[in-house]
Amino acid sequence: MPAPIDFYFDFLSPYGYFASTRIDTLAAQYGRSVCWRVFYMRGIMQDRLGQTRPFLDVPIKGDYYKHDVPRMARWFGVPLNSGGLSNFVSANACRAFWLLDDLDPHLAKRFAREIFEWHHVRATPPNTPEQVAQAAANVGLDTEQLDLATAVQLPEAKERLRRETDAAAAAGVWGMPTFAVDGELFWGADRLYLVEDWLRRGGW
Amino acid sequence: MPAPIDFYFDFLSPYGYFASTRIDTLAAQYGRSVCWRVFYMRGIMQDRLGQTRPFLDVPIKGDYYKHDVPRMARWFGVPLNSGGLSNFVSANACRAFWLLDDLDPHLAKRFAREIFEWHHVRATPPNTPEQVAQAAANVGLDTEQLDLATAVQLPEAKERLRRETDAAAAAGVWGMPTFAVDGELFWGADRLYLVEDWLRRGGW
Fold first, then answer.
1. Distance from B177 to chain A by nearest Cα, in Å?
2. Is A30 an interface residue toward B (CB < 8 Å)?
3. Residue B121: what are its φ and ψ, rounded to 5°?
4. Please, which of A146, A149, B39, B182 could form a disulfide with B165 given CB 3.0 to 4.6 Å?
């Protein structure tokens, strides 16, 4: 069995959302599974890259991306009503992802899709522990088994996300989304064609 | 006649070099010509974006790009021996481009290809006015007509590049290379497939 593809993302990024609608299907065509790995982008930006200003606030570049996001949604053929990143704090959703992943990676993927849907499609940023728990219940979490709203606020949930973010950075991840194919990194939803080409040709 | 595509670049970027080997052929398939427009990336980065640290020096991100540049050269199927950006100061070459463009845009394109070749293939960064003049002579500049080594050092040559850099920023350009198709901007040599898709479908 070839190794799974690692799909690194933060729920914040609409490009992560776009990629999430394609990556499993693409990988399956080459006999690969996909391991979804949430990390906390703000942690990487500030602590690792030394970037403190949100890139949407950078002159000219920010305008480009504000125009590009809906354009790429149309290109991917997916609905988009998020209207920007600024009102979403993804920490609770990111922490919840890993708690769910420990129970069942399939559940964690369904949860991730639900979070993307809340934020990028329904324009309801799931910021609070309660919203995050509701999203998990929507996709099949047994709420008797795990009180997610409480669990995401515990120190071990924070520590887990910090560890996963460290692991992403150690793997060379600095942007969202990033795909790792046999240790080869590709940044950006717009580079899925290169991921595919790498899979098809076995590298180049 | 449909409007030409604007191809914005700084000689510094290997991605600009990669794109320069494709963009005219791609555009011609859709009945378009290409207007090559050099700008001074350091001016945009520092004055407009507030970025003072060369991105290759950013932790993690810099390593990604150092690995990506030769990988993308292989993908584009073009030779690359530049070994990084750090030893090239592109200002003289950028100024020369516009002086040549005033004489003959075809000459300016040939000059641009020659500069890319010196820097990215022969690993001979054409930093000095004399090297830049030699590169222009190699591709057909009548040295009796224009003493390029002197001309690039004149205040009007500096002012011209500043004006063109301002114009690029005013058009929304913040990275290299950028393509403008009917006012629609695409950043990155790895987005040439989107430029092509936009041309083919007339937008989406």
1. 13
2. no
3. -110, -50
4. B39
CB proximity list for A201: less than 8 A, separation 6 or greater: none
Does A161 reach chain B within 8 Å, measured CB to CB?
no
Residue in B with minimal Cα distance to A74:
B204
Question: CB–CB of A101/A112 below 8 Å?
Answer: no
How buried is A142 (Cβ within 10 angstroms: 0-12 exposed, 13-18 middle, 19+ buried)?
exposed
CB proximity list for A180: less than 8 A, separation 6 or greater = A5, A6, A8, A171, A172, A173, A186
pLDDT tens sequence across A55-80? 777 788 889 999 999 999 999 999 99
Q: Which of B57, B60, B76 to mutate to test the interface with A (most CBs of A within 10 A)?
A: B60
Picking from A80, A74, A109, A76, the residue whose alpha carbon sits closest to that of residue A193 is: A76
Give residue A1's pLDDT band: very low, low, confident or very high (50, 70, 90). Answer: confident
* Cα–Cα dist B3/B5, whole Å: 7
Confidence (pTM): 0.94
